[in-house]
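Worked example

This section walks through a single chain of length 124. The input is the sequence exactly as stored; nothing has been trimmed or padded.
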Amino acid sequence: MIAGIGVDIVQVNRMEAWLANKNLMEKYFHTDEIAYALSRGKSAAQSIAARFAAKEAFTKALGTGFANIALKDIMVLNNENGRPEIKLSASAQKAFYKSGASKIHVSLSHEKENAIAMVILEGA
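Given that input, the structure is written out below as tokens.
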């Protein structure tokens, strides 16, 4: 059963400025997310924009927005096959359990100017 759906779009050029600000990046992204984005070279801003969109889409799927959830507690990482997955900790994990959902599905996409993410929460 679908417990929630969220979608978000982010302009890539907004994230280009963020990449130059280490403090801002560390405030909103886990070190593994930053390392992955930077490893993408010229597409680093697209990668980080897609991850930021996924964080927003996740909170929309929860129906809570960012209330009481630290963005850094939502990590968007790729598994060994390259598939994006959302890993939660602390405040985000607490909100997820409270929602009653049991599984997270995420899809990311980007092109030159925009990145988009869709999150579906599955429940019992």
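What to look for: Strands lie at 2-11, 74-78, 84-88, 101-110, 114-123.
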